[in-house]
Specification:
Order of helices and strands: HHHHH
Largest sheet: none
Distance between the termini: 15 Å
Strand content: under 5%
Number of helices: 5
Structural class: mainly alpha
Number of domains: 1
Radius of gyration: 19 Å
């Protein structure tokens, strides 16, 4: 089924959305690469930390796809960014309270210090952008032009 006009208007791309897709994509690649290396080479050193890093990579991949696709993916993206925010706050806190559990930096440990704290800021920006996209889609749906009528629909 082709995208309906209201779905097209809920696309997450455009302006800051493009920048977010690029940043999320780079972070997804970096987190995936780091977690694969850590799991394959150093797993016995900190299994939980490295598995959390792999989980973070998966979350970043989902967020990237959601940003790029928009439409129905906006809700998925909101969930991904919310999980990301909770993850970076919880893992960041635990990495300071129990440092021996995180002997190497992971994407969410120390609030993303190894990634320039981008993982701490990014979920807030992602949620803001998805909210903006979702609102613009709601505005399109409630506009008189989108209502079915003579010659429309």
């Amino acid at each position: 089924m082709p995208d309906l006009p209201e779905q097209a208007d809920r696309r997450a791309l455009g302006g800051p959305g493009v920048v977010l897709v690029v940043v999320y994509g780079v972070l997804a690649l970096a987190a995936t690469g780091r977690s694969v290396l850590q799991i394959s080479e150093y797993f016995s050193r900190a299994p939980l930390a490295y598995l959390l890093s792999a989980f973070a990579a998966l979350v970043y991949i989902v967020a990237t796809v959601s940003l790029a696709r928009g439409g129905r993916w906006v809700r998925v993206g909101v969930v991904a960014c919310t999980i990301e925010l909770v993850g970076v706050l919880v893992v960041g806190t635990v990495s300071y309270l129990v440092p021996e559990a995180f002997p190497d930096k992971t994407v969410w440990s120390h609030f993303g210090a190894g990634y320039g704290y981008v993982p701490l800021v990014l979920p807030g920006l992602g949620l803001w952008w998805f909210r903006r996209v979702d609102r613009s889609g709601a505005d399109v749906l409630s506009s008189p032009e989108s209502a079915p009528g003579p010659g429309r629909g």
